[in-house]
Amino acid sequence: MPPSCLTQDNDATSGASPERARHEGSQSHQDGASSAALERCVADLVNAVDKGVADEVSPYNLIPSEFNLLRVCAEGPRAAMQLADVLPVDASRISRMVTRLVNLGLLRRQRLRSDRRVVLLHLTDKGRDLTSDVSERVQTHVARLLHGVSEREMRAFESVTSKIVANYATLKESE
Question: What's the pTM?
Answer without folding.
Answer: 0.71
